[in-house]
Amino acid sequence: MLVLGDAHADDPANRRALFAAYRDADAEVALQLGDLLYYDLPIPTYFIAGNNEDFDVIDALRHGRLDSSEVTNAILINEEAVEVEGLRVAGLSGNYAPTQFERPRPNLQGERRRHFVRGDVERLKEVEDVDVLLTHEAPHGLPVAESYEVGCDHIDELLDALDPDLCLVGHHHEHAETTRGETRVVSLAAVGERYYELDPATLELTWHPTPSS
User: Fold this and answer.
1) Is 83 within the bounds of a domain?
2) In a domain, 75, yes or no
3) Does the reported pTM lie above 0.90?
């Protein structure tokens, strides 16, 4: 199974890197961690939204009303769990903003749609038997190089509630690893640097340099 970090594929160079990763992996299905920004994809790609997306497309995918020739094989995991190659994969889209967290999702407008809200988190906490959790925001403890303290209490709570075997994190464009309880937590490098393969049987995660496009 192909696993992809942030793509930012609205940029042509990043889009070429994204498709180079698809070609090199030659997989049948993919997971993607947000900031995708291009939705016409060669294989079924289960993804969460990041904080940089076409939020009109994301809203349409959330509500099942998309009618666009520019969206193919992009499947939003909408605060739920889906089965992918025998794994229960759950996902939380967006990043955390304290000023928006208590608002109902329909009240988020424009770029504020990039955030998750309490209702999203509480709904996801009710999901059972999660093998892999996808988040764009990170839990505490990931040793990534940022100018601020990385970690969100609400992601910590999700990991404690769902107890997945593996949590994959986007947003930071850097490979880093930690654990929380029995969960292995991995921050993924951006697609322009590397792509990953996940063995559904063992949850072994390996990475490969993305070929020059």
Assistant:
1) yes
2) yes
3) yes
